[in-house]
Amino acid sequence: MANEKESITLEDEQVYNKVLLDDLLINNHIDEFRDEFLSMHTYEQSEYFEDSDEDIRQRIFEVLSPEEVADFFEQLEIDEDEYEALFDTMDANYASKILEDMSYDNAVDIMNQLSKQKTVSLLTLMKREDAKEIKALLHYEEDTAGGIMTTEYISLKATMPVKEALIHVKEQAPNAETIYVIFAVNDDKQLAGVLSLRDLIVAENDAYIEDIMSERVISANAADDQEDVAQKMRDYDFIAMPVVDYQDHLLGIITIDDILDVMDEEASEDYSRLAGVSDVDATNDSVIKTARKRLPWLIILTFLGMITATILGSFEDTLSKVALLAAFIPIISGMSGNSGTQSLAVSVRNISTGEIDEQSKFKVALRETGSGFLSGLVCAILLFIIIMVLYGQPILATIVGSSLTIAMTVGTLVGSMIPLVMNKLKIDPAVASGPFITTINDIVSMLIYFGLATSFMSYLT
Predict the structure, then answer these.
(1) Residue 358 confidence (pLDDT) above 70
(2) Taking every annotated instance into account, which residue ranges of this chain make up the domain CBS (predicted)?
(3) Contact at 8 Å (CB) between 146 and 222?
(4) What span, in angstroms and rounded, lies between the C-alpha atoms of 364 and 243?
(5) Whole-angstrom Cα distance, residue 60 to residue 47?
(6) Looking at residue 414, what is its pLDDT?
(7) Residue 454, class by beta-carbon neighbours within 10 Å (0-12 exposed, 13-18 middle, 19+ buried)?
(8) What angle, rounded to 10 degrees, do the helices at 226-236 and 256-274 form?
(9) E strand or H helix that includes residue 421
């Protein structure tokens, strides 16, 4: 109840703030609006901006400087296709200054959503130094280490004295995304070591950076996939990781806030694929757009479903002789699909978190298969008892129970193995979506069920 009251209070406060800020803007109380708005956290500012209509957004641009807008643009969470329309409503010079004042990596994330023509125009209006840094980052693929890195970091020469290095850090700090991790380079600008701000502060003034730095540096290549980088930073508990080229030249750094965004993005992507859609549907997607995203998988599953229908048709004689068999089709196919989906989720998670390797693949598959067998056996015994009580047919109960046990065992095996095989083939294991596994298990379970029923038909009739 306490949490519920707190959430209601926070929601009420947000509504109150929005009404207050809107009123100040509409009635032209600019100074009061600025005082109130700038006292808010940048996340709260971004939420207010997102919830505002176009007229209010235009007034915000009129009363705030590009630097002040840049602060909350860093936290903005709007759909990718909204950026183009948003920048259409802004003065080009004003827009270019906003991007200049943002972190380079965040500015690049936004510019990747804009048309090429608008991107070129904005780069032309920027200061030469800022435009050069942003252009360099725009060349990298979006989902790579180079695509999410920033060039705003602190680096020191390994041969620099600590006393001089402290002055150098103080000069670079205002423009750096983080000052807590410092990287050392040699004369060729190759990554040579890493040290913390604490290491630098407690070191003797007459010491050199190469004396206090750690030469064992974990880095990412600019072409590395962002998901692999996120995994590595999670494993090592880094707040920042250097990005290098193939000759170990220091290109930039990736900070923990960017990695949190990557983890959220990858988790959403995996979740949507497990659900059998291309990506998570946006709430403002049209009916046609939503259907277009989902149709490819559904069409494939329709054709796979025809295989199940064909199997049922081929056992028409069996069904006509013992119609009661049809009553248990949903149970057997459903339980097989459910157990397969559970196993699939475990395998995909183990692969994505790096908890599975070549040596443990067989062990994981064996464990999942064993789990499916035990679960199937328990469910089969319960189903056997129910059929005996309701229908008094031990042969039918045995066939249904045996089919359920085998189907759930095979279902968990299929659910655990398909992601492992796909991962081995360098295919995203999340593509092995839940609906896909369920349909395959339907086919397998029907073959098992009607195969057993046909074999024991003489006893059933």
Answers:
(1) no
(2) 149-212, 213-269
(3) yes
(4) 34
(5) 13
(6) 85
(7) middle
(8) 120
(9) helix 394-424
Which alpha helices (H) appear in 126-203, and where do they start and end? Answer: 128-138, 145-148, 162-172, 197-202
What number of other Cβ atoms are within 10 A of residue 23's Cβ? 12
Q: Is the pTM of this model over 0.90?
A: no
- CA-wise closest residue to 276 among 414, 438, 411, 79: 438
Q: Is residue 72 predicted with pLDDT exceeding 80?
A: yes
The pair of structure tokens assigned to 378 is 């328990």
**Using CA atoms, how far apart are residues 49 and 25, in angstroms rounded to an integer?**
13
Q: CA dist 134 to 14, 100, 112, 153, 229, Å? A: 35, 9, 11, 14, 21
SS3 category, 161: strand
When the candidates are 1.25.60.10, 3.20.20.70, 1.10.10.10, 1.10.3720.10, the CATH number that belongs to 2-145 is 1.25.60.10
- What DSSP state is assigned to residue 182? E
pLDDT higher for 402 or 439? 402
76 half-sphere exposure, CB direction, 13 A CA radius: 23
Beginning with the edge strand found earlier in the chain, give each strand of the sheet holding 240-244 in spatial order. 220-221, 240-244, 250-255
Tokens of 40: 């808010």
The single-letter code of the amino acid at 163 is K
Query: If one looks up domain 287-460 in CATH, what number appears?
Result: 1.10.357.20
DSSP assignment string, 205-271: TT-BHHHHSBS----EETTSBHHHHHHHHHHHT-SEEEEE-TT-BEEEEEEHHHHHHHHHHHHHHHH
Give the C-alpha separation, 452 to 233, whole Å.
52
pLDDT top residue among 151 and 436: 151
On whether the 155-257 domain is CATH 3.10.580.10, my answer is yes
| Distance (Å) of CA 274 to CA 165, 278, 316, 424 | 50, 10, 34, 18
